[in-house]
Amino acid sequence: MAKRLVILAGLAAFAWPAVASACSIVVDHEPTFWENKARAKELLAQATLVVDGEVIEPETETTPAKIKVVRWFRGPKVDYFFSKGGGGDCTDRFEVKGERQRFVMFGGPEVYDTFMGFEPSPQRAIDRLLGSDRRKDWPYYNPDFPPQMRKR
């Protein structure tokens, strides 16, 4: 019995760093339409820049990603901007050239930051408030995904 506990403790020690570094968002219930709409309004009110863009220079350990603006919604009119992950596990990192998505950015003007997908649920509400459906107008694209997984 003691031998099993030692083995389990050893396995837990190796598994713990992976678990500790993972980003987890605890959701106690599925948000309602109205909760999503309120959260989307809150995010857009706090956002400094809202655009559709494409990564043209990926982020590295020392430099932020350079993102080309394709469609502008709110904030300063720029041709491109820089974004750097905030150092936490729940921040977006833009490490793939050609990756494109809708960016709701905070901070700036030198370097902007965002949070992982703003929780998936208010994305559709954000799109409705902007009058643009990202699934049709600017679908997420990551050139490293296998072709069968890419949204077109």
Itemize the secondary structure elements and their pairings.
Blueprint: H1 2-21, H2 33-46, E1 49-57, E2 65-74, E3 80-83, E4 100-107, E5 112-113, H3 122-130, H4 134-137
Antiparallel strand pairs: 1-2, 1-4, 2-3, 4-5
Helix pairs in contact: 2-3
Please describe what this structure looks like.
- By secondary structure, the protein is an alpha+beta fold.
- The chain is 31% helix and 22% strand.
- It is built from 4 helices and 5 strands; from the N terminus they run H-H-E-E-E-E-E-H-H.
- Strands 3-2-1-4-5 form a 5-stranded antiparallel beta sheet, covered by helices on one side.
- The longest helix is centred in the N-terminal third of the chain and has 20 residues, at 2-21.
- The radius of gyration is 19 Å and the shape is globular.
Characteristic key phrases:
152 residues; alpha+beta; 5-stranded antiparallel β-sheet; 4 helices; 5 strands; globular; disordered C terminus
How would a textbook summarize the main sheet? 5 strands, antiparallel
Average pLDDT for all residues? 74
Shape: globular
Radius of gyration: 19 Å
Q: Residue ranges: pLDDT <50 for 5 or more in a row?
A: 4-21, 148-152
**Count, helices:** 4
Taken as a percent bin, the fraction of beta residues is 15-25%
Amino-to-carboxy terminus distance: 55 Å
SSE pattern, N- to C-terminal:
HHEEEEEHH
The largest sheet has its strands arranged as 3-2-1-4-5
Q: What would you say about this model in short?
A:
The protein is an alpha+beta fold. It is 31% helix and 22% strand.
